[in-house]
Amino acid sequence: MKIHFASSNKNKLKEATKILAIYKIKVESILLECPEIQSNDLEEISKFSVKYAFKEIKKPVFVEDSGLFIEVLSGFPGPYSSYVYKTIGNDGILKLIKDKTNKNAIFKSVIAYCESEDFIITFIGQTSGTISTKILKGNNGGWGFDPIFLPKEGNNKTYAEMGLEEKNKISHRKKSLEKFGIWFKGR
Ligand code: ITT
Questions:
Q1: pLDDT (tens digit, 9 = 90+) per residue, 7-51?
Q2: 3-class SS of residue 179
Q3: Whose CA, among 2, 68, 100, 120, lies 20 to 30 Å from 75?
Q4: Residue 56 sits in which domain range?
Q5: Count of structural domains within the chain
Q6: What SS3 class is residue 105?
Q7: What's the whole-model pTM score?
Q8: Ligand 1, atom nearest to 42 Cα
């Protein structure tokens, strides 16, 4: 079974392709920059984007919206993660919380799937952890916030240090995609 994935992010595509292969779902990428509404709620943003994608391609399609929610910053950058990464980057985030003892953060992922104008379903995944005090890339480098996110389940390694295979076992994206894969196969 093949499903379209509308995203402009090739790293997400790589992760989604590997994870959904477990459920025998083939991911077909479409490079569609979906408009994103301003909201604090990833679910609301993803529903709007997938509706747009469906109207464009008129085939079953999913989008994924993710964000890093830092507790001491009241959830910032959250839905603004993409913009914040492109502007202040990992160095900027580390500076913002340099003097804070609370480094807790949650990485969230929402999948929104649409197959008709009135059928949209969402799946949420989240992984708790902390923000490291410095950039830790390891051998693989990672992408985005990978070098500063230390998942609780990660043996004190950042997502970047874990590498793709290990990250894909515990990541926020793995958890949302797993729910999606199970639902999709079971219908
Ligand atoms: P889309 O076209 O799919 O929307 P995007 O990169 O704009 O791609 P988001 O709006 O969901 O994606 O932005 C989330 C940002 O959060 C993303 O650009 C990364 O900087 C960061 N991010 C999300 N998931 C990540 C992960 O697994 N590892 C590292 N950084 C991640």
A1: 999 999 999 999 999 999 999 999 887 887 889 899 999 999 999
A2: helix
A3: 120
A4: 2-185
A5: 1
A6: strand
A7: 0.96
A8: 11
